[in-house]
Known about the structure:
The chain is of the alpha+beta class. It is built from 7 helices and 10 strands.
Amino acid sequence: MQADELWVKMVGKRVWMAMALAVPSRLWLGGVISPHRDRALITRLVQMVRACARSLALLVCVDGLASYVTAFLRVFRHKIATGRRGRPRLVVEADLLIGQVIKRYARRRVVGVVHHVVRGTPEAITAVLTKTGGGTSINTAYIERLNATFRSALAPLVRRGRALAHKEAVLTAGMYLVGCAYDFCWYHDSLRLAAPENAPRKWQERTPAMAAGLTDHCWTLRELLLLKVPLPAWVALKRRGCPSKLKPQPVMAMAA
């Protein structure tokens, strides 16, 4: 998977939008928005990635922001049961691979790119990239293309435009609308497969959700908006502390 962040100009301020993408299926995993480009923003994004992942053995390709490495090493840990009392020890996933693309700028132009292996070996990262079709070296090209797709589909993300968002809630809702439409309603050219010989069409088009196995057909926008997401059952909060010893006094009827 790849992750990246981009700044968004709002009315009177600027915020950061961090998003993640699963490269083999081009599936948009989600995004978070924060006024600051700090560790808290990246940690929220990494927690979202872990909630979507079937396994913690992933290849992560990010830019040179140091918060990504810290967040992945803290979030992608599992408990080791020792049978002793106390908090179990947390161990980082052994098959977690992390690679960084560090760009060097001069006068606002890229003059050099360094591919840095943070966790794992170059041979292991190259093998995963070859198997998943993610390129020949560590890169963030796919998430950067996704950023361009979001900028073209969501008006507040245009660099020089007048359709600025006033509230972060509106920007978050627009981000999820475009992201869900991208996953379920838009065909991706790189995901299409060759159709059978007797098929009426040459290619079998697929959306990122179809490539990830989440659905078997391309959704319409109406179908997406009318989908009823099942919510978890509501559970009453457990009352803590000792119950009150005072008994309620009976209400006396007022004399006429």
